[in-house]
């Protein structure tokens, strides 16, 4: 691993990384990560109530899209700016933005105000994710970082358990606005803790900011997210004769091309293309891309399946997803401990991707009347596979790059995974909804021939079906509708299996670099080991 970039002189004396200092900083990061992870599960539970009250049901896709777009856009920015100027102030800004977004979200009186507040949350949430991972690499050597994966994995598992319960209770009790406002005191505490505990050096970097690259990255990312969210934003399918859609497609492709050219010529590029000359970075980034496409696609439709097939409430469907979180926590903690003890990590993404592929393939057998015990085992396997991969590839890429580019490499890896998740979820949803439309057309004909509805098909609309409405349907119509939904979903999982197996093939080429015994800040001359 070559260190070719001259270190920037820190403005303050060297940080002494004693165990106490490391755990104080780690505690500040945990508080902030808990803020971000808890928010997603709380708000998703309350979303039907929120958009209904603010008259935004037809355009509720914007609530999700604004958040995803903001996160994707700021990921490379936080990574690069942290490398240039230090991570303390960007991290504090991220916490402050997320807290302000939560405050404004609870105060929103109109749907556009809610969308703007979610975008502001995303501007902070993207920084919390990226900077937390980069700061851990700054203060903990790669050889010891595995044991910190356990608490981080457990944190996300805990938030996944608490989130649906707390979101449901707040929505039914004090009101949905508290699903946002609850973040405010947590955010203030996280900000205070980070202010005093996050004693990281700042730099006076003389390197230029790649403003042109930032502009084309924002345009490219926005275009990709909008294209993949086209239907969820209220449009009736992809009508390629639409001038707006064609303009968006052409503009996105042009922005991507301009971004690549800009990054080739820029003296200090936002995402240096030379990183792709590093085989470990390239392989782990591609694994993250395909895993994002497969993982998030699989997870996106499962709560809806549970609500449709079992009549579970939104909160109940969240609880039925707990086996996935349990599997993820178990393997993330176990692999982290094993990596710290052995110093070997290549085997974990290889095994993890095989297990993930097996879990997705098993899910092609789901039925509307299946046992929830069997379903729990399916998603436990899926979660166990993902837990072996996600944090391990981040560790691998951080260990293989120059310590001066930890933030840039970490953010680039996460950025491509986020893009993969966005594209993969859109493609999976398109396959599913196409099948579902065909199934409902056949169901309408079946109901008409059975005398259960008028022969012209009036009286049945799949588009207007909600889990609550399906639960009230009489038999045999209820069973037919659930079967139509399940028969559309189950085969769609087969489209994800080749993606995950492609990730497995890539993992075979992952070069195992000896884990460094030196923390990033120590390697850059900004700290000394205590």
Short description:
The protein is mainly alpha-helical. The chain has 19 helices and two strands.
Give a description of the structure.
α1 runs antiparallel to α7, α10 packs antiparallel against α18 and α12 (322-342) packs parallel to α14 (372-400). The protein has helices at residues 19-53, 61-85, 88-107, 111-139, 146-172, 178-181, 183-197, 211-228, 243-265, 279-310, 314-320, 322-342, 347-362, 372-400, 406-449, 467-472, 477-492, 497-507, 520-523, and strands at residues 15-17, 527-529. It is built from 19 helices and two strands. Mean pLDDT is 83; it is low at 1-10 and 455-459. With 530 residues, it is an all-alpha fold. The two termini are 24 Å apart. This is MFS transporter.
For the largest sheet, list the strands in their spatial order: 1-2
Task: Give start-end ranges of low-pLDDT stretches.
Answer: 1-10, 455-459
Give the CATH architecture of the largest domain.
Answer: Up-down Bundle
Quote the CATH topology of the largest domain.
Growth Hormone, Chain: A
- Which homologous superfamily in CATH is the superfamily of the largest domain? MFS general substrate transporter like domains
What is the name of the CATH class of the largest domain? Mainly Alpha
Tell me the domain tally.
2
Structural class: mainly alpha
N-to-C SSE series?
EHHHHHHHHHHHHHHHHHHHE
Number of helices: 19
Please give the share of residues in helix. Answer: over 70%
